[in-house]
Specification:
The complex is a heterodimer of chains A (about 240) and B (about 150).
Chain A: H1 29-38, E1 40-44, E2 49-51, E3 59-65, E4 68-73, E5 79-85, E6 90-91, H2 93-98, E7 105-108, E8 112-118, H3 119-128, H4 130-156, H5 160-172, E9 176-178, E10 181-185, H6 190-197, H7 201-213, E11 218-220, E12 223-226, H8 229-233
Antiparallel strand pairs in A: 1-8, 2-7, 3-6, 3-8, 4-5, 4-7, 9-10, 10-12, 11-12
Chain B: H1 14-23, E1 25-29, E2 34-36, E3 44-50, E4 53-59, E5 62-69, E6 74-75, H2 77-82, E7 89-92, E8 96-102, H3 103-112, H4 114-145
Antiparallel strand pairs in B: 1-8, 2-7, 3-6, 3-8, 4-5, 4-7
Classes of the chains: A alpha+beta (about 240), B alpha+beta (about 150).
Chain lengths: ~240, ~150
């Protein structure tokens, strides 16, 4: 039977083939069975809002497949993308734990399968499973470190060109190694890339053209190729 | 002085405090002494009992100060959870007394006291919230200057 948005739907966590080491839901048998009972599975198209900054926490979202952008707004209403969440990430955990409003918004950037757990169920799950606590601690720490890198990049980087180089280097860590170089699948618009590094769409377009002219980057649609990572590394000063 | 585990709202947890007190090794640091360095593999968590600790990033071969941590603050918990290297350096800015808890000891103790896990998660959630607040502040400043 065809699944919506061509997603290979995983109905049961216990039989899921997607989870990997280091992901939130990579549990042993017992917590996995509990998770299976608690979660509500949904499939979302690109552009779906999972939760909005300032909204009271309803629960947590496990990104089973697809990707989502986490955004926040500055005091003057500008949008900043703080992270692109990858499969296996837990979203909304800090707000759900503290009982405070979500501090970011989450929106899918490609069709995604999401497992939702109601806040009360999530807190009960944590109270009974040290393994779930450990995985949640890893997820929170990872978000914290990612935000710290963002702060550091925004506050300390010298030029916008350096920030773009740093972002591309960050993406290269999960890119596909090919004989021609590192291939990246970039589903973000220039506007969204600008929101990741705190600049304007026009500047991103100009810098990408400049990188292409200097053979630092090749761009074909959503496919970016970095022929020599060392050239990007040379542009970054810390 | 009892250790007060502080997080965003200045709250503290007595059971986490008791756990740290039971496991800690107290170390004395002179002003200027390094507690941990950026890029090092984390081996445990540190909490400031007395004195102050400067946190900084390396930037253009210099140290860029970020903030000063005081008594009651806990350092290095996020690095312990992820196993990633320390993302900043911690240096005693005055003579200080630091409690140290080894990673394995902490995880073993948490395994035995699941309720304390929730306090650790609250602490980390507070850190995430504070980091996002700072990111918003920095981005507002940056975007205005573009």
């Amino acid at each position: 039977m065809p699944s919506p948005y061509n997603i290979q739907l995983q109905d049961h966590c216990t039989r899921c083939v997607l989870h990997r080491e280091g992901q939130f839901c990579h549990f042993s048998e017992e917590p996995m069975a509990t998770l299976d009972q608690l979660k509500f599975t949904s499939v979302y198209p690109k552009g779906s809002l999972l939760f909005v900054e300032g909204e009271q926490p309803r629960g947590v979202f496990i990104l089973c497949s697809g990707r989502a952008k986490l955004t926040t707004s500055s005091s003057d209403g500008k949008t900043l993308i703080v992270k692109i969440a990858e499969p296996g990430e837990l979203l909304g955990a800090s707000a759900s734990l503290l009982g405070d409003a979500y501090e970011v918004s989450a929106e899918t950037v490609e069709p995604s399968q999401i497992n939702f757990i109601k806040r009360d169920d999530f807190l009960r799950f944590l109270a009974t499973s040290p393994e779930a606590c450990m995985h949640t601690a890893q997820q929170l720490s990872s978000k914290y470190q990612s935000a710290q890198r963002g702060i550091r990049s925004l506050g300390l980087a010298q030029t916008t060109s350096e920030k773009l180089a740093r972002l591309l280097l960050d993406w290269c860590r999960t890119g596909e190694e090919t004989p021609q170089g590192t291939r990246l699948r970039v589903l973000l618009t220039h506007e969204e890339i600008a929101q990741m590094i705190g600049t304007t769409r026009e500047t991103v377009t100009r810098l990408l053209s400049d990188f292409r002219r200097r053979k630092i980057l090749e761009v074909k649609g959503s496919s970016f190729l970095v022929p020599h990572i060392a050239e990007l590394q040379a542009m970054v000063t810390f | 002085m009892p250790c007060m585990l502080l997080y965003c709202g200045g709250m503290y947890s007595q059971s986490m405090d008791a756990l740290l007190q039971s496991l800690k090794v107290i170390r004395q640091y002179e002003a200027g002494a390094s507690i941990f360095r950026e890029g090092e593999i984390p081996v445990g968590v540190f909490f400031v009992k007395d004195g102050t600790v400067g946190l900084s990033y390396a930037m253009h071969e210099r140290s860029s100060p970020q903030r000063v941590a005081g008594p009651g603050e806990i350092l290095g918990l996020s690095a312990i959870a992820t196993g990633n290297r320390h993302e900043c350096s911690a240096t005693a800015t005055a003579a200080c007394e630091i409690g140290f808890v080894d990673r394995a000891d902490l995880l073993r103790a948490l395994e035995e006291r699941p309720a304390t896990w929730l306090e650790v998660l609250h602490f980390l959630s507070g850190e995430v919230t504070a980091a996002y607040d700072e990111l918003r502040r920095q981005s507002g400043r940056r975007l205005k200057s573009v």
